[in-house]
């Protein structure tokens, strides 16, 4: 089981988390993933290595937590006036971000240090929330909308599957083809 | 880069590979994944630990190779007389095997010790070959058939995505719904 608390910690605990995450982000840029060690992260964050081991278990679990933070969407999907346009734009951007070298590295990290699936589930929840926003907006416009779970199957799943297992042909035209087939459900 | 040879090795090399893979499979059953070590595997296989390190790099890469072997389909998809029936049966069986506890563990192992994506690509190639068999057979019957890559997107990708990121509702009805939506393409 994971050693991470289920809720966002407050006070000192939150400061330690922020300092350690920031140290990982900086050091990934400076020394790269292969050279990174827990003592190096702890020194940069101003905590003891045992603080890191106690909270995260090992380097892989820490990298997984940092990766999920980086995969959190920063803005709402764009509002372009129609369900198809909004889904096209969102799918293209999602594919772009996830298939980029840093996106691929974060997806891998998120999965690898995540024995109980909490962080993978969080990645999927981020995508579901973004799709919900697009669908809610379309419904308020009076458009017919499909189910969020089906949009995950039709748009998100093929993109993530190809990134992990079959990384060819990941471009904007592919994203739009997925959206077209998804909207055939209506 | 991977230290694995691109082709199946012959002679002594093949015997070492078989002995080491067999040792991993036995020890996974006896001591479990968390207790497994390279020296333990080497002793069981009758080779030196450095033989294992030289060939596989580390335990994770070895586990990845063993996992891909275990994920190789053992039989051709059943021939039930129609494209829909064949796809339904294949998708149900694929979901069953991949979503089982051992299937999930092998998928995870295959991805984790596979920095260059060779083993993940092999898993995807196995699924593509099985779908090709179903589609070729249907085409010979005179049925219209969709493209294999689209069947990977419609059937394989959602199953693998949910196993890794959103493990709910993985049952036979779900597999058949995926096949129905896939055949809407025709």
UniProtKB/TrEMBL annotation, chains A, B:
Keywords recorded for this protein, A-Z: DNA-binding, Transcription, Transcription regulation
Pfam family, one: TetR_N
Residue ranges: DNA binding: 37-56
Molecular function per GO: DNA-binding transcription factor activity; transcription cis-regulatory region binding
Source organism (scientific name): Streptomyces daliensis
UniProt xrefs under InterPro entries: Homeodomain-like_sf (IPR009057), HTH-type_TetR-like_transc_reg (IPR050109), HTH_TetR (IPR001647), Tet_transcr_reg_TetR-rel_C_sf (IPR036271), TetR_C (IPR011075)
Protein's UniProt name: TetR/AcrR family transcriptional regulator
Lineage of the species this protein comes from: Bacteria, Bacillati, Actinomycetota, Actinomycetes, Kitasatosporales
Domain of life, per lineage: Bacteria
The HTH tetR-type domain, residue ranges: 14-74
